[in-house]
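Supplementary Methods, section 5.1.

A reviewer requested that the exact input to the structure prediction be made available. We therefore reproduce it here, unchanged from the version used in the analyses.
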Amino acid sequence: MNEAINNEGIIVDVREVEEFAKGHIPMAINLPLSDIKNGKVGLPKNKVILVYCENGGGSMMAARILSDMGYNVLNAVGGLANYRGALTRHR
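The structure derived from this sequence is encoded token-by-token as follows.
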């Protein structure tokens, strides 16, 4: 995550909207894996993209797809389950 932040990267939560609203890493944007699979990606290609999900499986798939699309992607192995920082929640 530090590499993405240090390079002014973008933190992307690939879980569905409802899961994202329950709690996500601060500064993360939500881009569900379902949208990525459908090619609905509007991220800048000149930024490092750090993807995460709950446990790492969805973000691994998202990282592979985004990488194939030409993005510089890092996968947060272990996902939100291994994250120990504060979460932002939406009501």
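The radius of gyration is 12 Å. These observations are discussed further in the main text.
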